[in-house]
Amino acid sequence: MTTINSELTIKKMSIRNRLVLAPITTNYGSQDGLVTNDILCFYKERSRDVGIAIVEATSVQSTGRIVPGSLGLWNDSQIPGMTKLVKTIQQEGALAVVQLNHAGPRCPPDNNRKHGFSPSNVAFRPDVEPIEMDTQDIELLINDFSKAAIRAFKAGFDGIEIHGAHLYLLSQFLSPLTNKRKDRYGGDAKDRASLALEIVRKVRKELGREYPIFFRINAVEKIDGGQTLEDALVIAGLLADAGVDVF
User: Which of 81, 100, 193, 203 has the fewest CB atoms below 10 angstroms from its CB?
Assistant: First the structure.
């Protein structure tokens, strides 16, 4: 009989139990998105009993942070600290997965820099002006997700999670509430999934068939005009075909 303490295998990941530390944003990172001693202490304490520790939302662009103290994997200087964090988690017996994210217009204000990327100019806070992404912005984002995933692999993470929930940037593309685009990145559930699918396919191509990819997704948004269960099932099926292993 399967219990919470039963082992689980996902590709080459051998997980000691079914307990997972969800990605909890601590705001403990440095101003430059680097791992700090507070981050190491936080994850050391919480990795002792779980099978997987998912490291909090880690930005793929410097202007895509959830909070000013978000961790980052937008440049190579952030790899050594992440390697130390991976080892800290693994030494406690847990596997280390990192969540990659862009906050979109939910990011904190950042003066004099282009930020607040959005599919359709939907504002989420009064101090950040949303910027509707053009195709060049989208191509840059796809590449930056891929580069961040490669850095995560180099740092030793056992897998990555792509954040497509909570109405951060990818979630906004998936939701009909916030995606009103008329190009190939907007429309029905299948078309709204185009950006997420392109990111997953590029990451899968870069990291190979055996590297675990997680994806966090909203199911029923329970907001008028939001994503329905039927939408979520269509999107999840497409993402699974593209290479996602775990939702």
Answer: 81
